[in-house]
Records
---
Amino acid sequence: MAELEPTASAGVYRQGRDLYTMNLDPGRDVYGEVLVAEAAGEYRRWNPKRSKISAALHSGFAVLPFKEDSTVLYLGASTGTTVSHVSDICAKGLVFAVEFSVGPFTKLTGLSKRRGNIIPILEDANHPERYAQYLSRADVIFQDISQRNQVQILLLNARQFARKDTPLMIAVKSRSIDAAKAPSLVFEKVKSELSASCRIAKSVDISQYEEDHVMFVAYLL
């Protein structure tokens, strides 16, 4: 089997077509993912069908904005599947993981007890002022909340926590915004809404792995 090689994204490795992150919690998987032992440490396969960020990388998204010491605000953390990989990448940083539903949050809290760089927050992302006590600024904001107003949620949090050089990543699910419209029309509407307050740096269609989804990266104007 070929050795893992680093990619252009910090903390992300490749073996053939598969992507991996170095396991911050060796010996444990999070969602049944494959673990691979190498001389440098243990790696976790990053399944693109279970993580929209991995799907973006598999779909031509060249470089993620995360660094080893990044402070990340993750909106829509769920049980922590993708959060755990961001935790691996930002091993010397912090991941503030916001989740509104109690069931997923319980699993997220368990994950945070094994990974000291995950800060779970049980809160509604529509109200960033309620968790401003935990952080003042974020180096990256990622949002994966399938709601009609998900662009507004991202912008509310960006105005609270972002600088002008803070990458704002958003995974947009067209059917959650308007199931009656063609996905292409929904994505154009999202671009228009984002462009009113942000410069859109890139977008990638991840529908090969997540049906009717596009990932955008933007920066506040």
Note: The first strand starts at residue 5 and ends at 6.
---
Amino acid sequence: MKIAIQVPIKGKSSERIPNKNFARLRNKPLCHWLLKELSEIKDDTIEVFVDSEDREVYEKVEKNFPNLDFHQRPRWFAEDHANGNHLIHQFALAHPQFDAYAQIFVTAVGLRRRVIEGAIQCFKDNIDTNDSLFLVTEETGWIWKGGAPVNYDSTRPNGLPRSQDACYFKETTGLYISQRDAVLQTGCRIGKNPYLYPVDRKTGLDIDTVEDLNIAEILLKDEEN
């Protein structure tokens, strides 16, 4: 099975953190942490692509990671209206020779090679029953959406479980894997029968705000020590 790993890196700056993908984190560009893990994967069936609308992005990372390939996306896919589904679909259409596609984001700075390889192997092992896989963290608590509870019944005295028993899974948004046919038929990164792959919260951390960046600074410092 040939798998392409797509690593989207915008040249366009983020609204919350200016130039987020290259923001300094432990004296290295933020994108360095995930790219380092991917560059150390030794598997001839896996090919890693930096996906950007701006070739200068690739030229910046190529100096440290020359074994990564480059996919130049059309500029439309770098705008705010483009989401993860749009990104993986345009990538799959451009590279139809692969059997499956993984989408991994550099903002997942706690994601390590062993977890990536473990998720890919799990995807392969369950290929007959699950057309896709994504990372999740298991959370607890009472969730509301649209003015109504999602995971408990607020209208019955016995409808309120203990908070530790009100479990749900949250996407980390760090890693997705999907079979080629699932991506091409649906245009989405999650198929009809996904496998939910649980990870701890450190692994599931996604950098979206300055506060997240500060948390990552502490976690990585602890890891180095």
Note: Helices lie at 30-39, 55-62, 84-94, 113-125, 180-186, 210-224.
---
Amino acid sequence: MTHTSTQLLLIRHGETAWNLDRRVQGHTDIPLNARGRAQAHSLARALRHEPLAAVYTSDLGRAMATAQPLAQALGLQAQAEPGLRERHFGCFEGRTQAEVAQHWPEEAQRWQARHPGWAPAGGESLQRFNERTLDTVRRLALAHPGQHIALVAHGGVLDCLYRAAKGLRLDLPRAWTIGNATINRLMHGPQGLCMIHWGDDRHLEGVLVLDEGSDGARASA
């Protein structure tokens, strides 16, 4: 790692009841369930010797509750960063995919097709969400040149960062998993984001993990 690069440790929050129900969470503040809390503590134990300069987290409760055990294990404060929030899904929030398709069939098709400029009523377009995510991560990375930092966020946020590191379009179907409380590593340098490692779940052995499937519409947690 060069003195101008920043290593990013990316973590999706632990499991929630709405993850299990496949309900769209977005900005709705859903707490971790018992498994999610266990995942957060397993994560903290696995990373207790990580040389992190800072732990940043979405200000939503499920991310904060995942970040706090890690920060405490390292003697740091979890710093809330609203720019790391999940995409705002407006009227879709609290609904399952089947319910969205039933109530808003045309909008559901646009969602499934990942149209970058489309947004659900009261929500955020994929394009705007992606811009917000990348702008936030760039700002945080540039504040820590030559250091390692943790970012605790959501499935959609990690999906945007994976695509940016791999040079993939927003409208491509997702064929990679984004597991609750797994460890993912990117580097941010002068050329932007690059991939180091994705989907390390060895620390979760014995703790059941819900993986997001390949359907891009499910990256709503």
Note: Residues 6-207 form a domain with the Rossmann fold fold (CATH 3.40.50.1240).
---
Amino acid sequence: MDGLISRKDLGKFIYCSSLLEESVANAYRRIAELVDDKLVKGLLGFISRDSFKHAECLRVVGEQLSGSMEICPEECEEVWGKTWKVLMTDAERYLDKSEISHEELASLIKGLMKLESFVAEEYLTMMHVKLIESMAGEAKIDLKSFRTLLEWIIEDEKRHEEILRMIENALAKKEK
């Protein structure tokens, strides 16, 4: 995205973020389905539901800005760059799991923590939202009505990181 950003370009960027959030939400849901530990299952389900809410919110904002135009996933790689494909591949590899051992779960949690921080989640989300606001300002697009929703997503992402740390600590205690 070079030069002045149009309203439609900003809408595409945000809409593509919704597709990424949805992919992450599906990964959490799938892992939660495979886990026997009720606490871990519940915490992963909590993150999954939050991520589905984020996807819906970002989708609506993206559609509002872009004029409800259809955006295919291939366009998202153009909008986000090569990072898009890496992030989607990381999220989607969790969907192929059919079972998870305790050891593998500990490894997956570490991977999810990495994904959370890398995927427009956690502190990258904060930068992402700041970028969106900057892009909007450059294009003279008023995002006041969307800013609160975006701030709530940031707060949720901070909680997701804390929840993953809780899971990691609980798994470490079980190993001892």
Note: The helical segments are 7-34, 38-66, 73-80, 83-92, 102-118, 122-138, 144-175.
